[in-house]
């Protein structure tokens, strides 16, 4: 019996799709960062409940109710709006909680030694999904789409910094984008971040000075609350969570527009309008109505812009004067955009009625920072640029030449039209 064997054509081997290396470790790093940041808020809240469980004001509240409240406070750091009872809605973001979450994601990525964007995507997914899962503990509308978006932003920025620190290879699309941008734009963006760091340092300094001046008021408000030992710990931690938020308020104060703590109030360098405020010790650092006439502080962003212009001239010199001016404009635009985003993040509500308006106006802060930084950076860049020097010198010589020619022409005309005086007759 004869067996016929048909030949088979073997094509090129197809590469099996595999998950990125260390994807599980990256996912666990994101989940761990979310859980630790959640516990850092929930554990003190539950501990405060246990310490005051016998208080009549608590009624029939249990420890799991305290855990739900702590979860809501934690979600505030991710852009949530939490309802306290039936009358108040809190939406003011404690940026301290946001920063701690970002630091935990950054540290987890560093420990997991993530060096590829594809692997970091699993850490991003693990963090975001864990945040959404924990948000299920809070009933009612908390703005879960906004929470998901904020979680993506917080973890994404932290992972991007971790990959940059690990010298991870940049994606091809990012390299193409950088190559497409003019050098003046890239230099302006970098100078904008440096200028923003200087302005935030000035805001921290301004807030520190306000704390020193209002420390007596802060201590009096704290003693009036009589929180006890555990209550003191929770109260201090809660106020520290809002400390970066107040730094953004100080930035708005330095820029000039100022901020509000309740509708109808205004705290700015040139004007202070107050109203009854909640008995929160941290609010004791707010400017007093007598501390006005400080409008000169708006010169600080101008000086910061001038410093950015000096750095651009020395380190990122542009051959053409208009390119130098463009780098200064991009610097101001970068500061304005990021300042507006920070202002939006540091605005919200802390209660019903007029307390639903807390923070600064993002368009006003962005506009003020834009013209202040641009005024300093562009002027310095133009004053120092050689093309501007040459143009001014040519204009000066042209004016002097015209002046000399006009004077000589006047003298010639005067000499030709004047007849000599005849001698007197004898």
Automatic annotation (TrEMBL):
Transmembrane segments annotated in the record for this chain = 22-50, 87-106, 118-139, 145-163, 196-219, 231-254, 266-287, 293-312, 324-350, 362-384
InterPro entries, A to Z: DUF6350
What are the alphabetically sorted keywords of the record? Membrane, Transmembrane, Transmembrane helix
For the region Disordered, give the residue spans. 403-426
* Ranges of Basic and acidic residues composition bias in the record: 403-412
Q: Which protein is depicted?
A: Cytochrome d ubiquinol oxidase subunit II
Tell me what organism the protein belongs to: Georgenia wutianyii
């Amino acid at each position: 019996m004869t067996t016929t064997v048909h030949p088979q054509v073997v094509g090129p081997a197809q590469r099996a799709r595999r998950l990125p290396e260390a994807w599980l470790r990256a996912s666990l790093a994101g989940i761990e960062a979310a859980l630790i940041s959640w516990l850092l808020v929930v554990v003190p809240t539950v501990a405060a409940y246990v310490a005051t469980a016998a208080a009549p004001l608590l009624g029939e509240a249990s420890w799991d109710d305290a855990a739900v409240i702590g979860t809501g406070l934690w979600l505030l750091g991710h852009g949530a709006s939490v309802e306290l009872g039936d009358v108040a809605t809190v939406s003011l973001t404690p940026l301290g909680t946001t920063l701690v979450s970002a630091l935990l994601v950054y540290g987890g990525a560093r420990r997991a030694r993530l060096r590829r964007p594809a692997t970091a995507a699993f850490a991003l997914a693990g963090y975001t999904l864990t945040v959404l899962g924990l948000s299920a503990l809070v009933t009612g509308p908390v703005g879960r789409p906004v929470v998901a978006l904020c979680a993506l932003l917080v973890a994404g920025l932290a992972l991007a910094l971790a990959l940059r620190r690990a010298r991870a290879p940049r994606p091809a699309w990012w390299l193409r984008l950088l190559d497409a941008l003019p050098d003046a734009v890239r230099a302006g963006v970098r100078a904008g971040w440096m200028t923003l760091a200087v302005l935030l340092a000035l805001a921290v300094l301004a807030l520190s000075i306000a704390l020193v001046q209002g420390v007596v008021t802060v201590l009096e408000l704290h003693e009036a609350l009589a929180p006890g030992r555990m209550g003191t710990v929770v109260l201090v931690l809660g106020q520290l969570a809002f400390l970066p938020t107040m730094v953004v308020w100080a930035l708005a104060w330095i820029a000039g527009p100022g901020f509000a703590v309740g509708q109808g109030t205004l705290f700015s360098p040139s004007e202070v309008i107050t109203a009854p405020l909640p008995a929160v010790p941290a609010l004791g650092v707010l400017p007093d109505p007598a501390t006005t006439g400080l409008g000169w502080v708006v010169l600080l962003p101008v000086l910061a812009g001038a410093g950015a212009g000096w750095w651009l001239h020395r380190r990122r010199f542009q051959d053409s004067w208009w390119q130098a001016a463009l780098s200064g404009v991009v610097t101001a635009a970068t500061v304005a955009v990021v300042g507006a985003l920070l202002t939006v993040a540091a605005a919200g509500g802390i209660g019903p009625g007029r307390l639903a308006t807390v923070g600064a106006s993002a368009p006003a802060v962005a506009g003020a920072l834009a013209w202040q930084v641009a005024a300093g950076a562009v002027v310095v860049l133009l004053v120092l640029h050689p093309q501007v020097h040459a143009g001014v010198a040519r204009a000066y010589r042209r004016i002097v030449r015209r002046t000399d020619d006009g004077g000589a022409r006047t003298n010639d005309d005067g000499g030709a039209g004047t007849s000599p005086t005849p001698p007197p007759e004898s």
